[in-house]
Specification:
It is a single chain. This protein is an alpha+beta fold. It contains two helices and four strands; from the N terminus they run βααβββ. The strands form two sheets. Strands 1-4 form a two-stranded antiparallel ribbon. Strands 2-3 form a two-stranded antiparallel ribbon. Strand 2 and strand 3 form a beta hairpin. The longest helix has 21 residues. The protein is elongated. About 20% of the residues are buried. About 5% of the residues have low confidence.
Length: about 110
């Protein structure tokens, strides 16, 4: 599914009364995409690192998921696009789509 092919009927499980639909989790495909992104960040950082002062903390799955939880409003824009720094001057962009790469986490308490 491309971002241009978004069908909002696919989001019937979204609580549209809530401004943020937090508590997302990655799908199996999303886990793979995020892990590949993290690996690419590590490789790019090693290639670009000029000095220890250029080093930044690289993204983790948990950090990306937290950012999704805090920034994605599915009813307005069901995609996550973010730049993550690999050095102080370079970043890499990740693009994830709701339902394909992350979904609403359900709690059965």
């Amino acid at each position: 599914m491309n971002f241009e092919e978004i069908n909002f009927e696919d989001f019937e499980d979204v609580d549209f009364e809530s401004e943020y639909n937090d508590d997302f989790e990655f799908t199996e495909e999303g886990e793979k995409v995020v892990q590949e992104f993290i690996n690419e960040c590590q490789i790019r950082q090693k290639e670009l690192l000029n000095a220890e002062s250029d080093a930044v903390k690289l993204p983790t799955k948990e950090a990306i998921l937290k950012d999704i939880d805090q920034t994605v409003i599915v009813r307005e824009n069901p995609k996550y696009v973010s730049d993550w720094n690999v050095t102080t001057e370079h970043s890499i962009q990740i693009k994830l789509l709701y339902k394909k790469h992350f979904v609403k986490a359900y709690s059965f308490l």
